[in-house]
Amino acid sequence: MIKAICFDADGVLINPQMQFARHLQDVYGIAREMTAPFYNGVFNECLTGQKELADVLPPFLESWGWQKGVDEFIRTWMLEDDVVDGELLNKVRRLRNQGLVCCLTTNQEHNRATYMRNQMGFANEFDHLFFSCEMGGQKPEDAYYQQIETTLALAPHEILFWDDSQRNVDAARKRGWQAEIYSSYEDFDLKMVAACGESREDL
Fold this sequence. Notes:
Elements (H helix, E strand, L loop, with lengths): L3 E4 L11 H10 L3 H8 L3 H5 L5 H4 L1 H7 L4 H12 L5 H12 L3 E6 L3 H8 L4 H4 L2 E4 H4 L6 H11 L6 E5 L2 H9 L3 E4 L3 H12 L7
Parallel strand pairs: 1-2, 1-4, 2-3, 4-5
């Protein structure tokens, strides 16, 4: 029996994603090819809490031609990527009302984790918030999933995991979790009925 459901943020609960990347391209001419070395490099240390975004951004912003300072860059990022899928969030509320534990499981650095917790109100919407920057590791590292199991005190097969990344889903399945790729709300809705053994009306 499923007792807890884990939801990824970007690409699942935050949808459509990559709004900030589009904003940088369309408004400032900062293409994804320009920002790739940052996101594929030192940003990963921010995701695991080893470094702070404000400390590592300045040289990159200079090379990208950003003129408005670090604080404004981070503020714009938070606002542009504040795109919550209201339909899915309502489903989370209904699942919690059914007695299921609902968790946010996401790779985030400290600024966005704080924004999600407070400004997006996720602290009130989920039973647990598993931010990589606070856990010292990120998906798809096995230790990330193991910490969640320990916190929830559940067997692997009692956890259902939703993510838009195949490698994250594969890592969850390797631990024995039930895990699915998130592609659309409609697909999610159908699979939830099958996974939880309830009628659509119940969920």
